[in-house]
Amino acid sequence: MTAALVVTVLVSGGVYLILQRELLRVVLGFILLGHGVNVVIISAGGMANREPALLGQQDRAAMADPLPQAFVLTAIVIAFAITVYLLSLLKAGDADDDGRRAEPDGSGDGDGGPDTAGDTGTADGSAGANGGDR
Amino acid sequence: MTGLEALLIAPIAVPLAASGALILFGIRMTAAARRAVAFSTVVAGTAVAAVLLAATSDGQVIVQRLGGWPDGIAVPLVADAFGTVMLLVTGVLGIACLAYAALNDADGDRAFLPQSLLLLAGVNGAYLTGDLFNLFVFIEVMLVPSYVLIATGRGPDRIAASRLYLTVNLLASTVFLAGLGLVYGVAGTVQLGDLAGAAADDPALAAATAVILLALSVKAALVPVHNWLPRAYGAAPAAVTVLFSGLLTKVGVYALFRIYAVVYDGDPRFLPIILVAALLTMVIGVLGAVGAGGMRTILTFHMVSQIGYIVLGLAIFTPLGLAAAIFFMVQYVLVKAALLMVAGAVEQHAGTGELARLGGLAAHSPAAAVAFAVSALSLAGIPPLSGFVGKLVLVVGAVDAGRIVAALVAIGVSVVTLLSMLKIWNGVFWGDRAPDPGEAGGSAGSTGTVVSLRVPARAVAPALALGGLSLLLGLAAEPLLSLCLVAADGLVDATTYAGAVGG
Where in the cell is it found (chain B) (predicted)? Predict the structure, then answer.
């Protein structure tokens, strides 16, 4: 029950923040949502067994399921890396994710050839085509 | 067979190692050396895929448990006919894409080669894994470099497109993870072998797995969760779009097929839902393409539409329908890559992809025109090209399964596909030659100028090669089609796969 309540609070907070306009809030929303999901996975291993999963030092019956813990560890690492990258995108453009006013030249790319010389045209096209999507 | 089992790790480990080497030492290497490393890696991966395909083409399943751990604890890598076909087509597309990038100097960006190899490692891993959690990990391995690659564009929309792409995919990944937690909570395992057929018996597990399928639908860009794709892909550099179109959404589709076949055991109760999603995807995608005004925008909308065709095969779930879907997916990856290469080359050399500002390219860029025409006709399903075979078998499969409406929709959407391809053809390749090509050189962004510069043959050489491959697959479809039937049998009767993975 406690776990369910924790997940409820984390996920509703996360969803609320993701629906905001400002990207920083969206990032914070994803952090909350990720934590909520991590609690789901941990609780999938059973809430009753809570002792550390150390073979030879614990009673096996009281030991927590180590597999969901390993899953969550992996998920935290991935989510951390993506959050950092998302923050760098936040720094590269405007705070508002509307994007139409985003800076055309962000900082620090290696210089490629004129590979995207036609992007202006494409961007116009997709803007027109996506008018009805949003 | 021990040698082959050891090979399973190669398609993942080799590109990972090469990518790391390029990140560490690439800055001190010449461009030619970087290309040589990347090419040899992708060619080696393709060769391994061909060897694995030869071994699995009789329906055999090869399993490797990493680290020698016992079943249930080890990370299983599994190769069956379906997975290795996808592995091979990934390799072929990787070679074509690197060739295209090299010929068009699109791989100058320091991020391009290492991140592409990392992406390929993730894609290969997703095709080989036999465990839902590792599917999640490999999809992330594939997505993280794609986040970087999509931001290497130059357009005004690149940051906005990157943010959209990243947040949508991060949300889908989070939903995937939640589904994993639920599956583990219900079944106590996330290994595909142990989950075989479980969702058909247990409604709770069926609901939990459906959360994962929902997340995969976002990644596959199925309607109604497709809106991110045209907007995000349109702003990426051309070479990156080529890579993405053949790899990212296909991994989502592959995982849908695999999970539905193994975990649900092809349960007919849920097939109508997939059918509706597939038909909507086909129709809405193609209507978006008709309404779009840029070459690459039209093509990205087609991506959505064609995914509907592939998923239609899953909704039919007969050996013939699934074989048609796999055949269609293989040829579609190649054809769509060729189309996007031509569109990218036109954008680069003519300065724009807007149909309204192009014209008469066929007169002075015959190579680009031929490459486009062959691939476009194949996409629309005109004989004798590979798209025709794929669609024909798919329609026959649908009629066989009693899905007459689906077959009619598939044919109707083909006609509209042809229509929008003709729109590109008329706008870009036919018509009057642009009056003043000299002035067009630096006017990529200016409006109202008709620009038309020559697209050199070497810029579209990989597209021509892929078009030739499409012709070959259309004229001699039998070998691939019988291979797809083997793969489809492995999906319809998943016991061999599940037995091998579960040990």
Answer: Cell membrane; Membrane
